[in-house]
């Protein structure tokens, strides 16, 4: 009966769209945000595109505002299997993994600027900013592991990740943009080693976001 209930819930959740995460205190006045095209929720200052931004700086990704795993987030059929295909995972705590996820995000933002075809905006250290610099700050606010409901049937639900962010004029400190976005990776991989195996969504989702942020900077904040 319990297995049937788990499967029914899994199907129900899989059929639902990804809703925005509840705002944290990292964002000031999150009620100002509206639905965006590339990000679920966003607010942009009227003059966000004004200025000669030639540089982009990215503060180290934070996990200060990240929520603990809830009861359902912890539940997983493989938690009770000896041959769990995602080993090395503490089902009660996602904060250690979040620290590693933040490092991956920091790496992907550097790669995104190296690979962006336009390259009009240069990535610089966040400690060296001026009026020509867009300064971005990102917090990981949710990190939920992959769920594998019935190992014998290969029923997998991708892990999710949610972030909040702010963009400033590096010289004046003026807030130019804030956003919130939650995504699910529905094609989880199992070849990664270590603690990120249950969190194999981290790398592809981080890459998606960072590619977009590089585009955002190189198009003068017009990419959303």
Automatic annotation (TrEMBL):
Keyword Signal: yes
Organism for this UniProt entry: Lentisphaera profundi
Keywords: Signal
Signal peptide: 1-21
Name recorded for this polypeptide: DUF3313 family protein
Superkingdom per UniProt: Bacteria
